[in-house]
């Protein structure tokens, strides 16, 4: 049986900026932050890091290889909040420079909800418990 399942995010140069942003915004913790060595095509960029938010592990790194794909909104991080104020603050910060797929409002399935893509291309669903 699996011991653990983690979300893995592959960036092309913005991994460290993204995970530090997420950690600060969502009260997460970072561990195992490592950088690509000198001489690497992405020297100094993130080679490995683990971000933990509310017990969920998110691993991230900057790929040394350019890819013809990026993130897709078909897979997103769903974050439940205890208060509307916390949700609103996160939605504003994550939405800055990104795009909104579902406006922040009440829906049949949630008292308050939004679905957005942040400026790094990661898709987030934010909902009030």
List descriptors.
single chain; 129 residues; alpha/beta; four-stranded mixed beta sheet; 8 strands; 18% helix
Any overview of this molecule?
It is a single chain. The chain has two helices and eight strands, in the order βαββββαβββ. It is of the alpha/beta class. It has a four-stranded mixed sheet, covered by helices on one side. Strands 5-8-7-6 form a four-stranded mixed sheet, covered by helices on one side. The model has no long low-confidence stretch (mean pLDDT 95).
Secondary structure: helix percent: 10-25%
Q: Order of strands across the widest beta sheet? A: 1-4-3-2
User: Number of helix segments?
Assistant: 2
Secondary-structure element series: EHEEEEHEEE
What radius of gyration results from the CA coordinates? 15 Å
Q: Assembly state here?
A: single chain
* Basic shape: globular
Regions with little confidence, pLDDT below 50 for 5+ residues: none
The total of beta strands comes to 8
Mean pLDDT: 95
Main sheet attributes: strand count, strand direction, barrel closure: 4 strands, mixed
Structural class: alpha/beta
Q: How widely separated are the two ends?
A: 30 Å
How large a portion of the residues is in β-strands, by DSSP E? 35-45%
Write a short abstract of this structure.
By secondary structure, this protein is an alpha/beta fold. It is built from 2 helices and 8 strands. Strands 1-4-3-2 form a 4-stranded mixed beta sheet, with helices on one face. The chain has a 4-stranded mixed beta sheet with strand order 5-8-7-6, covered by helices on one side.
